[in-house]
Automatic annotation (TrEMBL):
Protein name: protein-serine/threonine phosphatase
InterPro entries registered for this protein in UniProt: Calcineurin-like_PHP, Metallo-depent_PP-like, PP1_catalytic_subunit, Ser/Thr-sp_prot-phosphatase
Enzyme class, first EC level, given as a word: hydrolase
Subcellular location(s) per record: Chromosome, Centromere, Kinetochore; Cleavage furrow; Midbody
Domain Serine/threonine specific protein phosphatases: 1-121
Length: 121
């Protein structure tokens, strides 16, 4: 039991706290926002929101076509943003019994065509 306390403290300090600040935090918790340009405050109380311009600039700078993200409930299991340059996936239907959402999985074939399998609400 005594050793478990040290493990808990290590996890809390070096892993959990790391998730509340910095790059990893922003990768996990930043959310797209239709009503803004640039960056804004996030209602979740952690990280930021970003506009379509941020998505477009990031993709252009890194020569990419699509951002696929998760970690945000969306009603139909997946949702496009920024002229279909970003897609949010959420795979847990009826999340925590509190949401009436579908879940979705995305497949990408050898020609980079994306397709979605949706599990009903």
């Amino acid at each position: 039991m005594f050793h478990a306390i040290y493990i808990y403290i290590y996890i809390y300090i070096y892993i959990y706290c790391f998730l509340l600040i910095g790059l990893l935090c922003d990768l996990l918790w930043s959310d797209p926002e239709k009503e803004i340009n640039g960056w804004g405050e996030n209602d979740r109380g952690v990280s930021f929101t970003f506009g379509q311009d941020v998505v477009h600039n990031f993709l252009r700078k890194h020569e990419l076509d699509l951002i696929c993200r998760a970690h945000q409930v969306v009603e139909d299991g997946y949702e496009f943003f920024a002229k279909r340059q970003l897609v949010t996936l959420f795979s847990a239907p009826n999340y925590c019994g509190e949401f009436d959402n579908a879940g979705a999985m995305m497949s990408v074939d050898e020609t980079l065509m994306c397709s979605f399998q949706v599990t009903k609400k």
